[in-house]
Specification:
The complex is a heterodimer of chains A (289) and B (622).
Chain A: H1 5-23, H2 38-73, H3 87-116, E1 126-134, E2 137-142, H4 152-160, E3 167-170, E4 172-176, E5 181-187, E6 192-196, E7 201-205, E8 211-215, E9 221-227, E10 240-245, H5 247-262, H6 273-285
Parallel strand pairs in A: 1-5, 4-10
Antiparallel strand pairs in A: 1-2, 2-3, 5-8, 6-7, 6-9, 9-10
Helix pairs in contact in A: 1-2, 2-3, 5-6
Chain B: H1 25-30, H2 35-65, H3 74-81, H4 83-88, H5 95-131, H6 139-147, H7 149-161, H8 191-220, H9 233-265, H10 289-306, H11 309-323, H12 330-344, H13 359-387, H14 396-419, H15 421-427, H16 431-461, H17 467-493, H18 513-543
Helix pairs in contact in B: 2-5, 2-6, 2-18, 5-8, 5-9, 5-16, 6-8, 7-8, 8-9, 9-10, 9-11, 9-12, 11-14, 11-16, 12-13, 13-14, 14-16, 14-17, 16-17, 17-18
Classes of the chains: A alpha+beta (289), B mainly alpha (622).
Chain lengths: 289, 622
């Protein structure tokens, strides 16, 4: 029937949309990796919860829309239904979404608290590094390996400026796997944003502010680090990486880095076993982008 | 109101005859104080700007699909247009050019298309006609509100012209300091950024003059019998929008002045001390960059509703006329618009979940943001309820209205992901948000506007637009639109960040290039389809079939006036007897509409307890 074309048209497009979403993961149009942190798992679960609620609403409203259109073009009554609405329905469709929305928002609060409220950070979180963003790179400063921070005063002191024995890298953040690590994020010039899709972590770096963020990778691997706050013409190429290693590898990496940086140009690299290994490691993983 | 004389048809037709004197070309078409002419001036300007903004978007799309390739056509004419830098690059989009493209696309679309087409074009044209006034309350102010757009357009043009296309401002339409505050921070952060800010101020002055005018007109100049709850939803929407604008805009204007003062006069509001930007000297300030974000979003979030509410109102009016049915739940529609506007003032922080503001604020803003979905949901249900049981006729107007509802559902639902703070951690500043706001601002607002152009065109020009061209435009735009923006949700889920000139240098996004090429092709289809609209619009002005006063058999006061209305709008002063949605009323037998001005004796109706309580809800009782 010719006059049914448009109701079908308006039912057809949501069907295409849903099919697209269903096949999307197979084509890589979905999360680049499964969540590789505990917090990431929680975030993904919340995402899927909302996705279910939203899909039900999307399908439901579009079925309703398609139905009323279908019936509407077929309406053989002399006149349309003379109705100004229904109080009961208004009450129903105010209260029902209100309940769902309130549930969603209250249910989310806990994950947010864990992620951002400093007093709720996991107790075993250990300070790892200071990450300073600048146009268009990530500068990373580790405290001297083995240094212990007893209280927040000492951390503040360390954040105040470079200290003896600090280690520096660029665009290459190493973290021990299965540990909750804390980084202090800051910016040297404009706003940037620290985004590690695999860990589901994002936080803006705000000039003049030091922002602590914690995360823990549950798996070894090499994760992309990108900038997600417009920071100038080179915004797109502000590429870094987060490399999750075992704790032993991580300790070794820091030792190697220390040896490299304290190399005075006189002592032969060959005199230290760790050094020899270090050249190999750092060459193979060096990322010159 | 029942004591008023029924004046309709009693020979008041000569009341305005003395005003038909010749006023000359300039006063009639250029510096006109007639709200209809000003509305049409706005309409022509915004339609032109729509093409400008769309071309900028196509530049963005081209780069994302085929990064660093020379643009076809544009590279050939770049010798003339682009300036020396552009020629040296052989028509290829440079990163700074790319940042300019998306910045100016957003700026043009928001400030020179959507806000002025809703408030400026339709607000101006419809408010006096729909409330039964002969013009706006302040006609000269109204004229100024249009002519203040031109300095703004000039300033935005200077953004391109001052340093060439590569040196145009590229800080995003949100122009977050520090990037926008320090001249050395980016190629476009110099003088063009100042031009941009001044242009923004002019747009603000224009909007403010409009909003004062709309509020006054709606409050003071309604026709006899036009009580507040007999006003069409379009008028309610324009009224609420005007209030929003009046309260939110000063904040943005102040913030803009602060940023100009910081950039030009050496003040310090947004830049903290000790920064080393792009090799320049260390800054000395004690400012706070987050201050800008708070001030900016305090305006710009309500601005999202300024860009949506009028379209909601217009769609309500059009939908009721097209399905020949009263609006389902008129008062809930009004209250939900008011709720959206009210809540709109306390949700700005959801743009800043990852900005580093106090996490406790993130929680409160999440709850208020979730709650704003509630009145939006009520509106959607009421639109579906309006169609329910109606006699649907699928013409171009209906199609755009139904598309509006359908697209708004998607835009509203995708917003829930980002309203939820933990999920937003991942989705913030990815293409998911790009999909979301295009579904709302294009999918909802622009489809609403396209429908409104078709619907009120007969009133503007006394002729109607072509249906076949209208439907062709609709179907191409609809398919192009969904092909462009629906996949962007998936890009966002894949972690594809916004504002990247070349995302493919990041390995995890390499495989997304074919999808971006698909999106770009759809975007070009959509862009080209707009020429059908423009052509249909321009040709119909001269060649469309002539129509009478009320071609849609609608109820509103504007259909009581001649098409096109003369100076002073109404040849017979309207008196209003009922609300605007009495379609298919059993009170009349021979037709399915009952105009607001129709003075008929109500037949005796059974008013016993057996009646549907909703039957008289919101009508005739105030």
């Amino acid at each position: 029937m010719g006059n049914k074309f448009w109701p079908i048209f308006f039912i057809f497009w949501p069907v295409v949309a849903i099919i697209t979403c269903v096949i999307a993961p197979a084509y890589g149009w979905w999360f680049p990796t499964p969540p590789l942190s505990k917090l990431g798992v929680q975030i993904d679960n919340l995402f899927y919860l909302i996705l279910v609620i939203v899909t039900v609403t999307f399908v439901g409203t579009h079925i309703a829309l398609g139905y009323v259109l279908w019936r509407g073009v077929d309406n053989r009554e002399k006149k349309a239904w003379f109705s100004h609405g229904s109080h009961n329905l208004e009450v129903l469709w105010s209260i029902a979404p209100a309940g769902v929305l309130l549930f969603i928002s209250l249910y989310q609060l806990d994950v947010w608290r864990q992620f951002r409220v400093t007093s709720s950070f996991p107790a075993d979180t250990q300070l790892l590094a200071e990450v300073t963003a600048r146009q268009f790179e990530w500068r990373i400063r580790y405290p001297k390996p083995g240094r212990e921070f007893k209280n927040s005063m000492e951390v503040k002191q360390w954040l105040a400026g470079p200290q003896d024995g600090d280690l520096y890298t660029v665009n290459d953040l190493r973290i021990p796997v299965d540990k909750n690590v804390l980084i202090y994020l800051r910016s040297m010039d404009v706003q940037h944003s620290f985004f590690v899709p695999a860990l589901r972590i994002k936080q803006d770096a705000v000039p003049g502010t030091v922002i602590p963020i914690w995360f823990g990778a549950t798996q070894r691997g090499d994760f992309d680090l990108t900038c997600t706050e417009l920071c100038g013409w080179g915004h797109y190429k502000m590429r870094g990486r987060v490399f999750a290693q075992t704790e032993v590898e991580h300790g070794q990496y820091l030792k190697t880095l220390e040896a490299e940086q304290s190399f005075d140009g006189v002592t032969k690299p060959g005199t230290s076993g760790a050094m020899v290994a270090s050249w190999g490691v750092s060459d193979s993983v060096k990322d010159d982008d | 109101m029942s004591t008023l004389d029924p004046t309709v048809g009693l020979g008041h037709a000569d009341a305005h005859d003395h005003e038909h004197h010749d006023i000359g070309f300039v006063k009639k078409y250029v510096f006109s104080t007639d709200h209809k002419m000003i509305g049409m001036q706005f309409l022509f300007t915004t339609l032109f700007m729509l093409l400008v903004g769309g071309s900028l978007a196509l530049g963005v799309r081209f780069q994302l699909a085929w990064p660093w390739r020379a643009m076809p056509v544009v590279s050939q004419i770049s010798q003339v247009l682009g300036g020396p830098d552009f020629v040296a690059e052989g028509g290829q989009i440079s990163p700074e050019f790319y940042t300019m493209l998306f910045t100016m696309h957003a700026s043009v679309m928001i400030f020179l298309v959507i806000i002025p087409i809703l408030a400026g074009a339709f607000g101006n044209f419809l408010i006096p006609l729909m409330v039964g006034a002969d013009d706006m309350a302040f006609p000269v102010l109204n004229m100024l509100s249009y002519w203040f757009m031109w300095p703004a357009i000039f300033c935005f043009f200077m953004v391109f012209a001052h340093n060439g296309l590569n040196g145009a401002t590229g800080n995003g339409w949100t122009i977050y300091p520090v990037l926008s505050a320090i001249q050395e921070s980016a190629p476009g952060s110099g003088a063009p950024q100042t031009w941009w800010l001044i242009g923004l101020t002019f747009v603000g002055v224009s909007s403010m003059m409009g909003s004062v005018n709309y509020m006054t007109t709606i409050i003071n100049m309604r026709a006899p019998g036009m009580t507040l709850f007999r006003m069409p939803l379009t008028i309610w929407a324009m009224f609420i929008t005007a209030i929003l604008q009046a309260f939110a805009l000063p904040v943005l204007t102040a913030a803009g002045f602060m940023l100009v003062a910081e950039r030009v006069l050496g003040f310090n509001f947004f830049v903290p001390g000790g920064l080393l930007v792009n090799g320049s000297e260390a800054t000395v300030g004690g400012g706070q960059p987050l201050l800008w974000q708070h001030l900016f979003w305090f305006y710009s979030h309500p601005a999202v509703y300024i860009m949506l509410l009028p379209a909601m109102g217009m769609v309500s009016d059009m939908l009721a006329a097209m399905v020949r049915k009263p609006i389902f739940g008129y008062k809930p529609m009004v209250y939900s618009m008011a709720a959206i506007a009210g809540l709109g003032f306390i949700v700005w922080g959801h743009h800043m979940f990852t900005s580093g503001m106090n996490p406790a604020l993130g929680m409160t803003f999440m709850i208020s943001t979730m709650m704003i979905a509630l009145p939006s949901a009520v509106k959607v249900f009421n639109w579906i309820g309006t169609i329910w049981g109606g006699k649907v006729q699928f013409n171009t107007v209906t199609l755009h209205c139904v598309a509006f509802v359908s697209m708004f559902i998607v835009g509203g639902l995708s917003g829930i992901f980002m309203a939820a703070v933990p999920v937003d951690i991942y989705f913030h500043d990815t293409y998911f948000i790009v999909a979301h706001f295009h579904y709302v601002l294009f999918g909802a607002t622009l489809f609403g506007c396209f429908g409104a152009i078709q619907f009120w065109f007969p009133k503007m020009f006394g002729r109607s637009m072509n249906e076949t061209a209208g439907k062709t435009h609709f179907i191409l735009t609809f398919i192009g639109f969904n092909g462009t923006f629906f996949p962007m949700h998936l890009l966002g889920i894949a972690g594809f960040p916004r504002r990247y000139a070349d995302p493919y240098i990041h390995p995890y996004m390499e495989h997304l290039m074919p999808m971006n090429q698909f999106i770009t092709i759809c975007a070009f289809v959509m862009g080209l389809a707009q020429f059908i609209l423009i052509g249909n619009f321009l040709i119909s002005i001269y060649c469309g079939p002539k129509v009478g006063r009320n071609p849609w058999l609608a109820n509103g006061l504007e259909w009581f006036a001649p098409s096109p209305p003369g100076h002073g709008n109404f040849d017979v002063l309207p008196v209003v007897y009922r609300g605007p949605y009495e379609y298919s009323s059993p009170d009349v037998d021979d037709r399915d509409y009952l105009m607001q001005t129709d003075n008929i004796r109500r037949p005796e109706r059974d008013t016993g307890p057996a009646r549907e309580p909703a039957d008289v809800d919101g009508q005739n009782n105030s």
